[in-house]
Write a structure and sequence with these properties.
- This protein has about 900 residues and is α/β, with parallel strands linked by helices.
- The chain has a domain at about 5-280 and about 365-455: ATPase, nucleotide binding domain (Nucleotidyltransferase, domain 5).
- It is built from 28 helices and 26 strands.
- It has a six-stranded mixed beta sheet, with helices on both faces. It has a six-stranded mixed beta sheet with strand order 14-24-23-22-25-26. Strands 4-3-2-5-8 form a five-stranded mixed beta sheet, sandwiched between helices.
- Strand 9 (about 210-215) and strand 10 form a beta hairpin.
- It starts with a helix and ends with a helix.
- Bound molecules: adenosine-5'-diphosphate (ADP) and magnesium ion.
- Adenosine-5'-diphosphate binds near residues 766, 770, 846 and 849.
- InterPro entries: ATPase_NBD, Hexokinase, Hexokinase_BS, Hexokinase_C, Hexokinase_N.
Length: about 900
Amino acid sequence: QIQRALRSLSIPLERLHIMKGHMMQDMCKGLSLQTHAQAKVRMLPTYICSTPNGTEKGNFMVAELCQNQVRTVLVTLYGDGNMSPQMMYKIFDMPEGIMQGTGEALFDFIAQCVSQFLAETFNSDTSKSEERLPLGFVFPFSCRQTQLDKAELLSWSKGFSCSDVVGQDVVQLLQSAINKQELCHVDVVALMNDTVGTMMTCSTEGRPCEVAMVADKGSNCCFMAEAYLVETADETSGRMCVNTEWGCFGDDGTLNDIFTPYDECVDVDSSNPGEKRFEKMVGTLYLGEIVRHALIALTAEKAIFTGTDIAVLKEKGVFTMQHVLEIVRNEDGTTDVKKILEVLGLQPSERDCGRVQQICRAVVGRAVTLHAAGLAAILSYMCQTRDMETLMVNVGMEGELYKGYPRFEEILMSVSRLLSPECMATLLPSRDGSGRGAAMVTAVALRLAAQRREVNEVLAPLQLSRADLEKVQALMREEMDRGLCKETNATASVRMLPTYVSHTPDGSERGDFLALDLGGTNFRVLVVHVTQEGISMASEIYIIPAAIMQGTGEALFDHIIDCIIDFQTKQNLMTHMLPLGFTFSFPCQQVGLDKALLLTWTKGFSASGCVGQDVVQLLREAARRKKHLGMQVVALVNDTVGTMMACGYDDPKCEIGLIVGTGTNACYMEEMRNVGTVEGDQGRMCINMEWGAFGDNGCLDHLFTHFDKVVDESTINPGKQRFEKLISGMYLGEIVRQILMVMTEKELLFQGKISPKLQTRNIFQTKFLSTIERNGLALRQIKAILHELELDACFEDCVLLREVCQTVSLRAAQLCAAGLAAVVEKMRENRGLDQLSVTVGVDGTLYKLHPCFSKNLQKTLKDLAPNCNVSFLLSEDGSGKGAALVAAVASRAAN
Ligand code: ADP
Ligand code: MG
């Protein structure tokens, strides 16, 4: 019978694995917005988003509401890693009746305790009372917290039942009571429970504690969860401490099969039968009761205490946790056990003593094992949600069972290791969790608030309001009009260059075309077959040696013709005379579809005798010199136009081209009657806006931040391409780097230490923004990037870095959207439409690979141009396909 009793109290490992799984499921349920109302493990957000880092400094007051008492604590932190805070405290007994009286009386009493304590502590030093004194309030009842300093009481427990408090914000009630005491310098800044306090008090510099477990009268656990998973709180970046409230685990029946008849008796006897099933198996309030019921049952079965009177055991509560702990601690022999039982009024035999001890050990051992299963669930959950292969974590510990049972740590560690072998926990004993911890919470809250203010100050100039964006849109529109008008064109910052492309593809284009792509990353020659079935291409990359790039124009164009001949030979195309489209990505003044004067070389080219010349003519002359008759140059194309044309082949509504890569630019179909710089009023023409230069006349100066100015000054073209410098891939990384340097100087990042690498120009690449912003969990990659830059980053650094990147890329996308809004609105007006439906063909690696750029761009555009229905189509090889299509459309129009 004894063996059967002991077996029912021991839980096999497989069963613990199942329990761990249930706990993890329940945790997810508690965190999800949809299911948290029904969840048994409540997973309450605490609004504590950071653990102490040791720099916390100052005086912090704590008021703790306990059973029958109020405790006041003053903690002084020295910013020295929290190694030796100074603490003073005082305990006040609660007068009779307060716990069941009015809420007002309760809070007045707490405020009086605070007042009296402060008067005694500071009486000789009045100057201190001039300073603000932050106060943390430890309020161990079930609350719906919506901010660190806002919490509605859901229900009283533990014998409290004060009127007019349920449903009220208890922080507000305490603050009002404190104000009544004329303690206006005391601010209630944080409310928390004791578990959270334990976690906070165990954190020291360089050793954050991210889990806490309280194994006391009740049982509870809290941990730092990824904030975006805490759907019941708005916070989405970083982490937030979640109070699991796991005492109610099993209230839906998942623990029924391990409940023993003794547990059932304890539950039935309790004030809340059916509730807090887990807590009733592990809380020290219940362990003595479980033993008592086991002894009653075994006596009835005549397994112990045969022939003696056990009436004393019938009384609830006679067998206390203290008794249980003393019995289990009695390692050698049973002398003490006998004494304890005799004092209780029992007459145990030697054998009874041994059996009682076995029962006590089983009950306590089971409690620890269940704690271990719960802890294992939390550790595995953390490991999974942090996307880590292994997790090392510190666990703050508190409570009567933890402190009173010598084998607690050993059992907890070995069982949780078996259940979560991927996790390694280190237990840290808490020193006065609720008092010191509450001061820590308060201190961290103030540190974060101060830091937040400074971060906001740094980032504010980069954050654009709706009005800012509307203004950019209006300015862009103005500049467009000026660029189109013959008289003002010369002074407009947006040059609005005519391209002589007057039709987008209509799908009827047919034939084989050659295309050249010069001025991108590679020089390429392509053949493009446009057939009924679609477009197919073949291409080859050719090298242009530096000597030729910087030699004579003749040699350059001769080389290009050589490459074309080589390509046509290889492709068996020498017998044909093919039309050729030339994507030439250098600034040109176009005067016809096949006539474009080079304004200046860029990107390392400097071939002589070309600037001011017609590029098409130079190519034709070279063909003549080489006696190459297999091609006919019909069009010169800007890459923006190529992009529009390439997308236009798949979508006839595509009448805008956009590039967001190294630089940024756009083109669109404008009415000829509006193009003052070209003769004729009929039809439309594609306008190459060259919008990267928008703002070069100073009209965007108000948007330029300190960071943008520094970046601009270090470029080869200061003051030029102002719009582009706020948007494109060549600059975003560098803007982020400038912000990081300023934030580090202000000690908001990297503990104020700037690495020499971070001071290197252009070391922070724009592609880093994509990695950093990609998902909520790219922490490992963020750390890797920072490691590459020789920066030692903590979790909070990573979170702040992401915020900086998001701010910079969001601004870029919004500005781009404001520019596009001006374009689509102009097209809508041009056509006299209430609603315009149009497609933008887009190219550029920033647009294509950044995780949020396109989404932000589209959202802002919808907002700024609500009457335009704009879709976006990614271009595939716009320069090749687009140039061929320009040639094709030109031949179609000519026929
Ligand atoms: P180009 O504009 O010269 O034709 P791309 O469209 O490929 O070339 O753009 C290149 C630019 O894209 C680079 O300057 C770089 O800043 C940026 N870039 C490269 N990779 C990424 C990435 N993963 N995310 C965001 N931007 C990137
Ligand atoms: Mg490109």
